[in-house]
Fold:
Amino acid sequence: MYTKDGESYFIVDSHVHAWDGSLTNQANRYGKGFIECFYDYHRNLSPEGWVWPLEKFEKYGEETLVRDLFDEGYVDKGIFQPTYLSDFYVNGFNTTEQNGAVAEKYPDKFIVNGAWDPRNGETGLKNLEMLAQRWNLKGVKLYTAEWKGISRGWKLTDPWAYRYLEKCEELGIVNIHVHKGPTIYPLNRDAFDVHDVDEAATMFPGLRFIVEHCGLPRLEDFCWIATQEPNVYGGLAVAMPFIHTRPRYFAQVIGELLYWLDENRLTFASDYAIWHPRWLIEKFVDFQIPEDMQAEYGALTTEIKKKILGLNAARLYDLDVPREAQVEPEPADSGEAVGSAPVVSA
Amino acid sequence: MTTGTASVTAAVWSALGRVRDPELDEPITDLGFVHELVVDEPEVRARLRLPTYFCAPNFAYLMVADAVDAIRAVPGVERADVRLEDHFAAEEINAGVAAGAGFPDSFPGEAVNELDELRRTFRRKAHTAALERACRVLLAGGSRVEELAELTLRDVPASPEKDSLLRRRRELGLPVAPESPLFVDDDGVRVPVDQLALRLRFAQAVRVSIDGNASFCRGLLRTRYGEEGTG
Structure:
């Protein structure tokens, strides 16, 4: 819980990792390139004093993770989003099992999400069932750009992906986090193409599709889809840290997201350990859309901040929110966005 | 950068300045992607580098191939040795471009030919963003949103925004005559007044996205290579 100026904020960090990117776990130059790419993100967008040495960044261990999130970082609940990258790392980068092992030691602190890959066919479906049972899955994280042998990625609209989405419905895995954002790329397609989310969201209205990194760097394509699909959400990992280096750009991104979606479908995330939640949360609570941009984007209210920082994710994962951090209840359906969005000013 | 004949070196640099990152819509010279340029007539050697190891290979391929074409077109140049460095697919891209193999044949079994379509997609985005910037100039000058539907290119005051819009229209093969309608879609069809406000709002999201990406990429390049990496 974060408290400032008499207001309490329930914090759900929707995207955290317990990864191992260390030299011994790197399977090849891709594994090395991947963690170094993450590290450049970390160095480029973290404030002074928050930058780690590379060795620590590669493997920080469980104690650091728990201290950073819950003791120093104000986080009430952290959602583990696995990133297998089995072709890049000997034991995987951070798998459901690795995350789960940490989560079990700290009851009530974490939510463990799973993962699946439609290219694993029938075997993968069986594995998903076991994974769901073992970790009581309510969500999965999907990496459509993940390499597998000669394949350089897949789409949510692939026939086998639909089989897995059906299985998710059956197993009560309702939160489908889809990585659409920077870092790894299928070879030839536009890696950030979010159109497959559009179709899948229409086909599976009972599932929620949380687009991680809100499609950055294709914000507009994501917005266009999310505005038409009420079960599409935006995860703010990678968007958040711009609040420090480029606050005006951050204001534009948040402003666009609030215009095209609404305040009920955006979720805070640090992408730990790329960024530390403490400074992100402090800055976000203090943040306001610059005055000269407010005519276009409006202002951020305390209520909006509370929703983004935790209440929206709490709704997705049925978490109990302490009374002092709640806001007036609203209809669960956030309604159509574009029709209800503000009129463009002249 | 070392020099051969000063004029040829300048011509090569200026040719490279017309090679744009297809996604960021900015010259690779401005973005700091040209890390080394050696003109030793009739040969030119150039080294390109990108903000991350995993920058999209399709865009990388386009930039290397475009750089080779641009350099070869400079009078006095006979050979262009252009290579991408520090990139996961550098080897395949360099070999493919050098052999004129085309993108799919540079990655046998792994890639399909979508580059032309990809390039078109991003030219359309660049046009949309340029149109929004030009409209902002008009709105700041007192025009109302609904009026934009009736305006022609002649109505846009001379400005960098107008130049940029005209260039994007040429790239897409859209009309650039002064009497051509200003607010057109990707195919050059005038957008009706009742759709204009929404289109303009979407164009704004496109512009925010492109501007943000360019700035992020510059920052990452600086982080990766230090201040001298900014070209």
